[in-house]
């Protein structure tokens, strides 16, 4: 069971404090929202710990909510459309565990097909450039030691449980010029109205 691994890695990398920090899950309202919106995918959310690791809920912070919502929307829409119109049916995706691991969103499930595996892979890649705490895609980097994917702003405002770790910006993150350009395009569009 993964809880053992969490305990072991917690003690190894950051001590007891980080172990307890890692047990802080996504906000309850966001959790319930996803379970109600995608009942087929999260059918095991309230199963016993013996039957599903979904018992532990969403083992990451709130910033990745947007990625999960879009991922589940894409998966369910794709399955429903396919199964309505195509002879070859796709088995329902059911989440087995959703967690942060080494700074990435991990979505473990059964069911689906290769296309759905691709959607999950893209979502996991997106999480590496999305702040796990606020969902920002600007100035996103990682901490060393215990890896968090966290933007500079959240890092600068973090408490001692995170601030003692050093932070470096993701090398593949858009540079300041690109971020300025995106903001400029938004403003230009608003001016057209
Ligand atoms: Zn942030």
Task: Describe it.
The structure is a single chain. The protein has 193 residues and is α+β, with helices and mostly antiparallel strands. It has 2 domains: 2-127, no CATH class; 138-193, no CATH class. Helix content is 47%, strand content 14%. It has 8 helices and 6 strands, in the order H-H-H-E-H-E-E-H-E-E-H-H-E-H. It has helices at 2-13, 15-22, 28-37, 65-85, 114-127, 152-156, 160-163, 176-192, and strands at 58-59, 94-101, 104-110, 140-143, 149-151, 167-169. The strands form 2 sheets. The protein has a 3-stranded mixed beta sheet. Strand 2 and strand 3 form a beta hairpin. Helix 1 (2-13) packs antiparallel against helix 2 (15-22) and helix 4 (65-85) runs antiparallel to helix 5. The longest helix is centred in the middle third of the chain and has 21 residues, at 65-85. It is globular and about 50 Å long. Mean pLDDT is 88; it is low at 6-15. Bound molecules: zinc ion. Zinc ion (ZN) is lined by residues 131, 133-134, 136, 150-151, 153-154.
Features:
193 residues, alpha+beta, 6 strands, binds zinc ion
Radius of gyration: 18 Å
Bound molecules: zinc ion
Number of helices: 8
Q: Structural class per helix/strand content?
A: alpha+beta
Kindly, what is the distance between the CA atoms of the first and last residues, rounded to a whole number of angstroms?
55 Å
Helix and strand run: HHHEHEEHEEHHEH
Annotation, overall tally of beta strands: 6
So what's the overall shape? globular
Weakly predicted, low-confidence segments: 6-15
